[in-house]
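Reply to dn_fold:

You asked what the input looked like. This is it:
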Amino acid sequence: MVDDFDQFEAVFGFKSDVAYNQQTIDDIVRNRRTLENLLFIDRLLKALGIDKASKLYPPRSAFDLRNLHERIVASESPDHHKQSIFYYILKDLAHLSRHAAEGFARATYLPEKFKIFIDGIWYMDRLKFERALEHLTEPALIPTFPEDILYTLCRFAPENDCSLPLAYFHTVSPCIASNKVLEAFFLIVCRASVTEAFFFSREQGEFIHRNLFEKLINFVLVDSTGTIRAKRSVELINLPFDNVENNWFEEYLKDGKGRTLSGASDTIIMKGLATGDSTFLLEHGQSIAGRKIAGVNWATIRESLQHGPGIDAGSRDVLMS
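and this is what came back:
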């Protein structure tokens, strides 16, 4: 058992003058820049009361590694927390000893949940997100840095594959307090399903609900193109808006920030047609005569409505005029 890990040789004594190689240092520095200048190991070091982690990690020489060891040992954090950091560092040094990290974990009786978590964030810092989630979604873990993990997964999710951030969210159920994280995740939900994004927005408080609701409309009209835009537009206008949401919808596209979006007025019209709102049709029936909406001529729509249910005789007369 390693009970004297405060001694450098007890942790790193598997090789004299142990140090990081240049390739490992370069990879860590590059990944830190990619991750908005903040690695997960930086967060862990800060949690131990060690500031300016980027100045200490990665250690660029054998002397720097000894200095980092001393700073970790001097922390007032529990031993298992310090041992977890050493386990992380030993994983970095696999080019010197493939088994040093596992051996240290066994010798210190590092709790399995600590080991699993460190494995997860080590892979996060290496941008190997799928491998990271194999560890970070372990049910035994108490979520640590959940918003940061979710945000990172959202940032790097491919356009056509949102599975990792969604899997993490549904498995861990993190409480999202940061607007930045909420907006990043909501974009992921929008990309996965307009309908799911709509119902997700409803789960928020009224102010956030409206904000996300408007972002959903903006996503459909701005961030989508071609046949995908058409499909999402149809999905949007067929959502079961309540009266408040209907008002938000029209206000945003008629008088709000969405009024200048391409297709804003047509989207309002198509929503009215989809719901068969006779009041709406009375207001807009004449103004769209001869126009194409979503590629369909109003004359074609008029013919389908002429004998359709749900429209009173007065409304039908205006529509057909």
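DSSP finds 20 helices and two strands in the chain.
Hope that clears it up.
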